[in-house]
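Morning, I've got a small favour to ask if you have a moment. Here's the protein in full, and shout if anything looks odd to you:
***
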Amino acid sequence: MSTPETAVAPLTTQNAEALLQSARAAAEAAGVTAAISVVDAGGHLLAFRRDDRAVLIAGETSTRKAFTALQLDAPTADLVDAVQPGGAFHTLPTALDRPLLFLAGGVPVHRDGRLIGAIGVGGGAPEQDHEIATTAVATLG
């Protein structure tokens, strides 16, 4: 008989809204007009916000960054070198026949060592997006 896994609380809409608000505050403090997406472990979009001044593509960018961080369970900032020409993921196909978006700004969310979701930020420079997402995840605790 196998030992049951310890239950880990999922990422809730309340958590997602807290991540969103924290990222929004960090973006405003950095002067970045951003779009922010939060997905749960199943890839369901729980929260989304696009600054009125952000370009429309920033919304899709933030969502794809969150999905990439979730699928690979790694901050997208750590994957940038892998998708450059000659990198390990340069020709990685996707089910959607579109490339995954690996630019910095997607960060997985863990609880008790288990992946429960991810946040993606788009709109600023990659380093700014990564810092905003990392700041938001740190405030979730």
